[in-house]
Design goal:
By secondary structure, this protein is mostly helical. The chain has eleven helices and no strands. The chain has helices at about 1-15, 15-20, 25-45, 60-85, 85-95, 95-130, 145-170, 175-190, 195-205, 210-215, 230-255.
Length: about 260
């Protein structure tokens, strides 16, 4: 397994798409800084309206963006090999295809974890440094209070990456897999919120974008249907995402020709 892990690490380091996706990190910090600066300037310029100035926590926004980037990297991790023909060499060197998929998943998960936590905590410190001693709604809690939610949000980036890897393996098409991800992010939430009664709450609760809040037990669910999962339920839902994505990918990879 060590050899397969090293091989996957070398492969990921040697393709330009990896660095293109990782370049998203400074872009996210720039967006966080821009949004914070805009609100801070408004707060400074309008003393009479300071009580109404609200800046939603930016760490969740940052982890969502990094999740998108890592999901795309997950897709490219496998589809690049199919498009270049390298997958045949990979299957020859590592005949156990489940082992090969597991090695890809472990390396990708490590990168996703580092990126997720870097973006979450980096966005927190950056926005708080810019806000300074201003009393801005949504940015008054301490690091200790925010840490559980940030750890949860940063860790969910791993699930985004596994979802991308699974879809890339199943579809073997970069365009197809990314289209499926886009549909999941933008179309499915619109459908779930239109479902009747508690069904809308349950369907919305299991969407990846809402699981970090429930996993951290923060109770800050924002707009939309009420979320229903406990912390254990959210953890189980995340585990099911990974199990279904990689389980289906493993079955198809073992049964299909290269």
């Amino acid at each position: 397994m060590t050899g397969a892990l090293h091989s996957e690490w070398v492969k990921l380091r040697s393709v330009r798409s990896t660095y293109a996706v990782l370049a998203l990190v400074p872009v996210i910090f720039a967006l966080v800084a821009l949004m914070t600066m805009s609100v801070v300037n408004f707060w400074d310029a309008t003393p009479s309206r300071r009580d109404t100035v609200i800046l939603s926590p930016l760490t969740g926004f940052a982890s969502w963006l990094s999740g998108i980037g890592l999901a795309i990297l997950g897709v490219l991790t496998i589809t690049n090999e199919h498009s270049s023909g390298l997958i045949r060499t990979s299957f020859t060197v590592v005949p156990q295809r489940t082992k090969l998929l597991a090695a890809k998943a472990v390396v990708l998960a490590g990168i996703a974890f580092v990126v997720g936590q870097l973006v979450e905590f980096g966005s927190f410190f950056l926005s708080r440094a810019m806000i300074g001693d201003r009393t801005l709604v949504g940015h008054t809690s301490t690091l200790a209070e925010e840490a559980p939610r940030m750890l949860a949000a940063g860790s969910v980036v791993i699930v985004y990456a596994m979802l991308g890897l699974g879809l890339g393996t199943l579809l073997r098409s970069t365009a197809g897999a990314i289209s499926a991800l886009v549909a999941y992010w933008y179309v499915v939430p619109l459908v779930t919120q239109k479902l009747p009664g508690e069904l809308a709450s349950w369907a919305t609760s299991v969407m990846l974008t809402h699981l970090p809040e429930q996993l951290a037990g923060s109770g800050r669910f924002g707009m939309g249907p009420e979320l229903m999962l406990s912390q254990a339920g959210a953890a189980l839902a995340l585990a099911l995402y990974v199990a279904l994505a990689l389980g289906a990918a493993s079955i198809v990879m073992r049964r299909r020709d290269a």
